[in-house]
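U., I forgot to send this yesterday:
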Amino acid sequence: MKNELYKNLALHITSRKNRLPLLKVRNNHQRSMLNEWISLSVSGGTGVDEVTPPVAMTANPVNLSELNKMIMNCSRCAGAEEKKCGVGSGTNGIMIILNAPAMVSSFEKKQFKGESVDLLKKMLAAIDIEFSKCYITSIIKCEPSETMHRPSSMFRECQHILKKEIELVKPLLVMVFGEIVPLQKIIHESEDISWYNIEHPITLIKNPDLKGKAWKTLKLVSAEMNSV
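Result:
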């Protein structure tokens, strides 16, 4: 009876009807263990102990209060016009980092804000990712005025917050929308996380020809999500 239950569970996990993975794995070792368990469960195994499912790694909602306090209390860059705190639960293991185009003015950011958010939601929905279940943040944590620090210098002042976000969110997959070069050190230090780079939604709105390349990357994300 117990083995039959595990067999049905294994079949459900691998069903093609499930566009999103029901279980998350952090590395190839865990992936191998899960595949082995599924194989034993489907075939019937040789004993109850052999088909006992591995402990699933489930993501808990992100503690935004701690992160928001760090952001709101940061004063390393004087003259910031607006603080930008992360949103979303992060329960699907996906983190989205937004890095607005350097050549876009504050006025244009405000002008395209609503449209860019809508486009981001549509892009995620196209590969069956729920916007609210992602953790969405910005590479810099405040909106610079036109006369203050360059975004690159600002990132050096607030990258410790982004590292803290990654530590708390514990993402399995990160999508960077915008320039990814400033994040190379953090990427190198982040083990067992898959990183993908897509043009920022504002860039895609202003340059529709780039949407084809973005869609190819989204399909790679979808393929990884659907693999067990």
